[in-house]
Write a structure and sequence with these properties.
With 727 residues, this protein is mainly beta. It folds into four domains: 158 residues, Dextranase, N-terminal (Dex49a from penicillium minioluteum complex, domain 1), CATH 2.60.350; 110 residues, 3 Solenoid (Pectate Lyase C-like), CATH 2.160.20.10; 189 residues; 201 residues, Rossmann fold (3-Layer(aba) Sandwich). It is 13% helix and 38% strand. It has a 32-stranded mixed beta sheet that branches. Strand 42 and strand 43 form a beta hairpin. It is elongated and about 90 Å long.
């Protein structure tokens, strides 16, 4: 028996990278020690503890556990193997119960140069003396303590008194202090799981078609010993052997209160077609593997998530509609008083899967997003649902001064090369056909309220709203009392919100009742071909409704240009209204194309900035006559937009050198005083093609710019606008 215990300890040491000297000592009171207002639970002797911090709470020493977390925003679609350890690091966490204010002292093993306690909205000001950090806590709450930056952070879970159960009562599965390895546990109706303080349960809890289930207690549920064996493309796998810490299918009357969920192989806590769910005071930590979502409520209703902490390496608090239950409506979902640290994807999200007839009455309220990789508040509508009555209220986003850009890993040996200065989005509302869409039809979005939301930090996060077409649109968005670094914004431009096509009735309110409709900022028109905009086409395997072949809408050159201009106050385009038009027909029929007729709506839009991005579909100009005709047609096109206005015009070259077409594009730009951007050299670098970034079956799609190429195009256009460069 002693030999088997030693093997277990050595295995944990090897997996977590902890030295044996950091292991906990045998506790005298395994049930927890209470002194006055604080209860501390000793750790199991076999459990590795942190070497980075020691902590006392109201004078009591509290064990500091370890968890593996992501060290960088570097991710890929499930490749059939788990994420390598060298992309991770060890962080620390501690928990206790409290009933009254307490003093906390943290001793850091590293010299202390700076300390940040998040959420910063809590206003906790530490006292630092040498390597000792002291502060006061009035109430139970969840915090992240960052010493010298966010790496190797300390997470604090100060809990209200834990609920208790009779260990011997019928239907109770009781896990007392110590290490347990039950593996996968399938729960039946009317069962209660209790994970006591000081317990670490290696395994997971699953249930299907069960009612009146409870999972309670302040201890730890760790799923690190479970293997993942499938990707997320086969939704039938979602319902069987899923492998997260807690996985529920078609269950009702579920209560989850208190436990710490650590290191799942993919989604941490998921519920599919469930109802009457109450989730409170749970803490999700150590989510570093591929698709390590936090809490996913899929095709469920009447669910409440309160006072929880989620640090996840994928979407954090999520409402989804999956095709397996595509006829089940989703309604009455509330996330409230949660703390979110998002290291990939979205923090608060509906989507991207929205296969449901209706998604309504979803509220995210009073939540702190201490970090997000991509988007803080997101409705990414990829399927047919009628989404309506969604509220984001009192959401507080913190943007780090040094924020590294998320990056897709292309190949097993690829290394992370992301740079600091990344600006995540604050709010995104978008209807699209994306990689996770399963419905043929798009849906709608109505009555979205963003109230009393704020962001702090040196890097202003942009926001973007966009519909799909005239039928599948976004209508009715109210933004009220939005604050940026404490200042209430009074216009879309000031808020950095770009309003795209098929969006209407967007209003922004200040406390004095002022209201600004969309389109008060300047207008931008993009005329291009498939590189600018290409709708879904199953015959070539293209599912996007954006510039081909970016991996996502926000990564095509058009949206990168919009984002860059919105971050340049001097550009005057900080809240642009923009339109996009694919004019490949003009390229193919430039000699006979009826410009005034076909482009009348675009001309009447009267853009302040016109970006003309064409040429690839123009047949090679082999005669002087064809060259002259192409020049004449370009001249007519550009001057049509100068008749009743004076727009800034940007004309780009072909993506790839064209000795016959590029000189004419350049001359046509010069003739009307436009800026010319030469991007022809980009095609000479294989890394700029989509085929270099991901497998694409269709050669035509693969030969379009990928994310890197799109960024290079956008950078060239923005640079020309900055410099006012003319041919």
């Amino acid at each position: 028996m002693l030999r088997s215990i030693a093997i277990i300890v050595v295995a944990l040491v090897l997996v977590l990278g902890i030295t044996p000297g950091a292991l906990a000592q045998t506790p005298e009171n395994a049930a927890g020690t209470s002194e006055g207002s604080v209860t501390v639970y000793p750790a199991p002797p076999e459990e590795p503890l942190s070497e980075d911090f020691t902590i006392t709470v109201a004078g009591q020493a509290a064990p500091v556990y370890v968890c593996r977390v992501s060290a960088m925003p570097f991710n890929q679609v499930w490749p059939g193997y788990q994420r390598p350890i060298d992309q991770t690091e060890l962080a620390s966490f501690v928990y206790w119960d409290m009933t009254a204010p307490v003093e906390v002292e943290v001793v850091s093993a590293r010299p202390v140069e700076s300390v940040a306690i998040r959420p910063t909205a809590r206003g906790i000001q530490p006292q630092v003396e040498g390597n000792r950090i002291r502060f006061h806590l009035d109430t139970p709450q969840q915090l992240a303590v960052e010493v010298n930056g966010w790496h190797k952070a300390l997470h604090m879970f100060a809990n209200p008194p834990a609920v208790t159960v009779d260990p011997h009562a019928a239907g109770v599965r009781y896990f007392g202090p110590g290490i347990h390895r039950p593996g996968r546990v399938t729960l039946q109706s009317n069962e209660t799981v209790y994970v006591a303080g000081g317990a670490v349960v290696y395994g997971c809890f699953e249930a299907a078609d069960a009612t009146n289930i409870k999972i309670l207690g302040p201890g730890i549920i760790d799923s690190s010993e479970l293997e993942r064996y499938f990707g997320l493309t086969d939704e039938s796998k979602y319902l069987d052997n899923f492998g997260g810490c807690i996985h529920l299918v078609r269950c009702a009357n579920v209560t989850i209160d208190g436990p710490i969920l650590r290191d799942p192989p993919l989604w941490c806590l998921s519920a599919f077609n469930c109802s009457e769910i109450q989730i409170t005071h749970i803490k999700l930590i150590g989510l570093w593997r591929y698709n390590a979502d936090g809490i996913d409520l899929c095709n469920s209703r009447n669910a409440t998530v309160l006072d929880c902490f989620v640090r996840s390496f994928d979407d954090s608090l999520v409402v989804k509609g999956l095709s397996y239950y595509k006829d089940v409506p989703i309604s009455n979902i509330l996330f409230e008083r949660c703390v979110v640290w998002n290291e990939w994807g979205r923090a608060l999200e509906i989507g991207a899967e929205t296969a449901s007839p209706e998604i309504s009455q979803v509220t995210f309220r009073d939540c702190d997003v201490v970090r997000t990789a991509e988007i803080a508040m997101d409705v990414q509508h990829g399927d047919r649902a009628a989404i309506h009555d969604v509220t984001f209220e009192r959401i507080r986003l913190e943007v780090d001064d040094v924020n590294y850009a998320p990056q897709i890993q292309n190949g097993r040996d690829a290394t992370y090369t992301g740079q600091p200065g990344h600006r995540p989005h604050f709010l995104v509302l978008v209807i699209l056909r994306g990689a996770w869409s399963t419905d043929r039809e798009r849906g709608t979005m109505r009555n979205i309220v963003v109230r009393d939301c704020s962001t702090t930090g040196k890097l202003l996060p942009p926001s973007a709203l966009s519909g799909f077409d005239e039928t599948h649109d976004v209508k009715g968005v109210m933004i009220s009392n939005m604050q940026i670094n404490g200042k209430v914004v009074t216009s879309l431009e000031e808020a950095g919100i770009s309003v795209g096509p098929f969006v209407s009735d967007v209003r922004i309110e200040a406390p004095n009742g002022g209201e600004t409709a969309p389109g008060t900022g300047k207008k931008i028109l993009f005329l291009g071909n498939s590189i600018t905009l290409h709708g879904p086409n199953e015959s070539i395997g293209w599912t996007g409704n954006w510039g081909m072949a970016a991996s996502a809408v926000e990564k095509d050159y058009l949206h990168l240009v919009l984002r860059a201009l919105s971050e340049m106050p001097e550009s005057g385009f900080s809240a642009p209204k923009f339109r996009v038009l694919n004019i490949a027909d003009f390229e193919r029929q430039y000699a006979t194309f009826p410009i005034e007729e076909k482009l009348r709506e675009a001309i009447d839009f009267k853009p302040d900035l016109l970006v003309l991005a064409i040429g690839e579909n123009v047949a090679d100009l082999t005669t002087e006559e064809s060259k002259a005709q192409f020049h004449t047609s370009l001249d007519t096109l550009l001057k049509a937009f100068q008749k009743d206005g004076d727009p800034t015009i940007v004309v780009r070259s072909n993506f790839g050198p064209s000795p016959t077409k590029d000189p004419i594009l350049k001359q046509a730009a010069a003739d009307v005083g436009a800026l010319f951007v030469d991007i022809s050299a980009l095609a000479g670098e294989e890394g700029n093609y989509a085929r270099s970034e991901r497998p694409i079956a269709h050669a035509g799609v693969a030969g379009h710019p990928g994310d890197r190429g799109m960024k290079a195009i956008a950078d060239a256009i923005v640079d020309a606008i900055k410099k006012g460069r003319k041919p």
